[in-house]
Amino acid sequence: MSASWNGLRRGAAVGLMTISGLMLGCRAEGSEESRGDVVIERVSDPLRVVEIDLGRAIGPDNRVVEPTDEFRITDTIYASVVMLGRANSATLKARWSGESGELIDETVRTVTPVGETIAEFHLVQPAGWQKGKYRVEILLDDATVGQEEFEVS
To answer: Is residue 107 within 8 Å of 78, Cβ to Cβ?
Structure first.
């Protein structure tokens, strides 16, 4: 083959790869970009709660270490709330209630999240929990964004 033919083929291949790369880069919609197994969240996106976990302990990053919905009467119960997005200021609230709906406790946190932010709430009953079913409701700026039920036995 001639050198000019090889140059033309190489130029066409580079052009096709460039167009393919641009098309793939423009493919991501909404607030996430996909690159292989990694999802990239843009920090300018509106704030939202994406995960709520309950457990007996949290790690240094405020995540529940071992999620569970079954507790003992002597446990401290932790709720880990994972938020994504950005807000100059937001109010995050945890409402803890008993089986019949009676309010046990309400905790409020003001957060200024950017990207992934994890807030922690916890509740302990010094005299011990009564056996039964309970619920924690999570509110973001006074709108319910999730709830988790748990049992003490």
So the answer is: no
What is the helix (H) or strand (E) element at residue 15, kind and residue range? helix 3-27
pLDDT (tens digit per residue) in 75-85: 999 999 999 99
* Cβ-proximal residues to 135 (8 Å cutoff; 6+ apart), any chain: 96, 97, 147, 148, 149, 150
pTM exceeding the 0.90 threshold for the entire prediction: no
Q: Contact at 8 Å (CB) between 15 and 51?
A: no
d(CA 108, CA 33): 32
Residue 79 near residue 122, CB atoms below 8 Å: yes
Q: Quick count: other Cβ atoms within 10 Å of Cβ 134? A: 21
**Amino acid identity for residue 77 in this structure:** I
Please say whether the beta carbons of 146 and 52 come within 8 A: yes
φ and ψ at residue 129, rounded to 5 degrees: -75, 145
The pLDDT tens digits for 44-64 are: 678 999 999 999 999 999 999
